[in-house]
């Protein structure tokens, strides 16, 4: 780039050093600006995604199932379903979350992500020996999100290729190389983000999330409520007695004082009558 500034028939020898520096800086800036402009132009000119690229399913499904199961069977059923998922008994499956609660009203919950073909067999296994009380299926359309992400990826790839071509030029100054390297690093970071987003979208489309919640049947829960009430009755009775005792002890001084005043007033009235 400094060569171009000095190519006018040997006139460069007569130019002051400051003029040479200014010419070199201006040329470097122009080259960097040209690289950025052409990269942006290439990104804009990137071809749009082909219509056939989005012919694949674009709905991400999630299922929520409530299963009524005898309390004694809940822990074993959770373990059984985890093993079925880990062994891929119904197809590729990943355990996302397992939760189990004890106490008077035990409860268990299992969340997995499984291939579509394994959803129904997994739910059927969860309901064995129990009853499916409710089931909710939710679908989210990811078509537009997938298309936008793919278009962004193609634009970034075109810009990356153009910047890499400029990096191969021999007439770039150090400032140009630094500017191009920074721009290329930013583009690569954005490309990585789009790749991660695409992988997450693909995972949501290829598999479905299933959340299984286990609880005791209604009759068993009612018995549990009655048992809990009977269990708490002694504590409630003792608490009531304690409250009465506190009330009596707290009011006793006032009662005694009132009785004494009443006796005093009655005595004075009798004296007046006698007089």
List the helices and strands and how they pair.
Blueprint lengths: L1 H4 L11 H28 L14 E10 L5 H13 L6 E9 L5 E8 L4 H8 L4 E11 L1 H25 L6 H33 L1 E8 L2 H57 L1
Parallel strand pairs: 1-5
Antiparallel strand pairs: 1-4, 2-3, 3-5
Helix pairs in contact: 2-5, 2-6, 5-6
Helix-strand category: alpha+beta
Mean pLDDT: 79
Strand/helix succession: HHEHEEHEHHEH
Biggest sheet, strands in spatial order?
2-3-5-1-4
Count of extended strands: 5
Describe the main β-sheet briefly: 5 strands, mixed
Total helical elements: 7
Please state the CA-atom Rg, rounded to the nearest Å: 41 Å
Tally of separate domains? 1
Keywords:
elongated, transmembrane helix, alpha+beta, membrane, DUF4349 domain-containing protein, DUF4349, disordered N terminus, coiled coil
